[in-house]
Amino acid sequence: MSKAREVTWELLRNLGMTTVFGNPGSTELPLLRDMPSDFRYVLGLHERVAAGMALGYQLGCRKPVFVNLHSIASTGNGLSAIQDAWFLHAPLVVSAGQQDRRHLFAEPFLASRAVETAKPYVKWAYEPSRAEDVPAAIARGYRIAMQPPRGPVFISIPMDDWTHECPPVPAQTVSQRLLADPNALDEVVRALDSGRNPALVAGSGIEEDGGWDDMVALAEHLNADVYQDPIPARWTFPRGHRLFRGALLPAQQPLADQLAKHDVVVVLGARVFLYYAFVPGSPIKPGTKLFQITTSASDATTALAGTSIVGNVAEAARHIRAHTKARPCTTQGVTTPPVPSAECPITPAYLFHVLNEVMPRDAVIAEECPSAKGDLDRHLILDEPGSFYSVPNGVLGFGLPAAVGLQMALPERRVVCPIGDGSIQYSVQALWSAVQNKAPVIVLVLCNGDYSALKGFCDFTQVGRNVPGMDLPGIDMVKIAEGYGMKAQALDKPDELEQALRAAFAANEPRLISVSVAKGGKKTMGMDQSVNPPNYR
Ligand SMILES: Cc1ncc(C[n+]2csc(CCOP(=O)(O)OP(=O)(O)O)c2C)c(N)n1
C-alpha cells in the first residue's frame, strides 16, 4: 500500500496529466510536498489565472488538465474560469484542499463549502467520504470530465487524506464518442435533399469533436452558405472560404432575419441560439426547417425551435455528406472589407487590418476586446483549425490566461491576445506567468480609457450615459507589464503599428503593446438601433 499522495501522482502520470496548474495554500501542502520531478507545477498568482491558463492549455493540447486550488478561498476566485471550462466543454480535473477531517466538524479556519459553490458549473462536485477513496475519486472525475460533452469536475480533498494508505488505482478509460441516431440524421438528409437554399451554422462543437475538415467537406458538398454561431467562443470554419457568410447576430429577430432566405438550416455544435440583447421575434422564420446537432443534451433542451439531435458532430457531418445529393455551386465568392484608413487615434479596424497583414497564417487569437469584436471579426482572416478563442459566457478575465495557456501548449504557433484596457485588469497577473514560463504571447492592449462596450449598450438600450463607473483613467499598461518582467511599449500613431508588430513576431519572447485606440461602442455585438432593441429607459 502507498500513501494517497503517491497513488494520485502515479494515477495522474498514467492519465497524462503531468502539468498541474494551481495556487497553493496550507490545505494543499501535504499533496504538493516532494512533487515527483516528472511533474510541472504552473503557478498562477490568482486562481482565475491558474484555472484560466489550465483552460487555455487544455484547449491547445486537447488533453485533460489537472488543477489544484486552495480551499474555498481559491475555488471562489477560480470559479469564473471553471465556468468558462463548463461552457467550452473543457475537461479540467479541478481539486482543492479542505481542512483536516479530524476537526472539520468544528468549522475551523479555511473550512470549505467549495463543493456546493462549484456544483452548478461542473459535471461532478465531490468530497470523498473516506480518505482511501481520494485517488479513485480523481480517477472517476477524469472519466466524467472526458465523456461528451466534456467539461470540468471538482473534487474537494481534506488535507489529512494525503497521508492515508490506499490501494493503487488503475487509469481506466471510457469510450468518448456518442453517435447520433442515424434515423434522425436521415431526416436531416431528406430535408437537405428537398431544400431549395440550405445553410449551415458552425459552432464550437465542431472543434470539440475534431470535425473541422468534415464541416468544410459537408459545406462544399452541399455548396451551402455557412454562418458562424452568435458571439462565437471558437471559430470553426475557415474565414476566407468562399462559402463563409460571417457570424449570426445574438438576438432573436435579427438572427431570424439573417437566415430568412434559407429554407433549411442545420446547426452543428452550437446552441439554438446564443442570444445577448432581448429582441423578441420568432427564433427562425416560420416554415424554415431547423435542425440542431450537438453533443450536449442540455443544449438540445434549451433550443427554442427546431429538431435537436444529440451525438458526435463530426460523425454526423460525415453521415449527412455521405447520404445527401451534392449541390451545384451557386454562391458568389468572398467579399473583403474595405481597407480601413490610418487615422489618429488609431481605429480598432485599422489595428486588426495591420495585424492581419503581419501575423503568421497559423497564428492563434485569444480575444477579449468587447467593443472592438466586430472589427476583429471583419479584419482577421484565419483559415486554420484552432485559431480563435473568446469569452464563452461574457465573464471577462478569460482572454489573457487562456492566451498564456494556449501559447504554452502550442510552442510552434504564435498566440496573440487582443484585449481591452478594462478586460485585462480581471486577470492581469497572467503577464507574470507568460514571462516565467517563457510563453512568447503577444498581448495587444486596446487602450480607449473606458468601458466602451457598456457605453455602447447604454446607447443601444436608451439607458442614457448618466451611469457611474464607465471610465478608466490613469492606467499605465506598460509600467504594469514591466512590473511583471514583460517587455512592453506604448504607441498611438498608426504608422508605428506595423513595425511594432513585426518586431514582436520576430522576437521569441512575450511582449505587450499598448495601443491608444479610438473609443468604440457605436454598435452592440454588431447590432444598432435598427434591430429595435429593448428600452430600459
Ligand atoms: C467579470 C466581468 N465584470 C464586468 C463585466 C461587464 N463588462 C462587459 S464589457 C465591459 C467593458 C470592458 O472594457 P474594455 O476591456 O476596456 O473594453 P471596451 O468596452 O472598452 O471595448 C465590462 C466591464 C463582465 N462582462 N465581466
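^ thiamine diphosphate complex. The first strand starts at residue 2 and ends at 3. The two ends are 67 Å apart (CA to CA).
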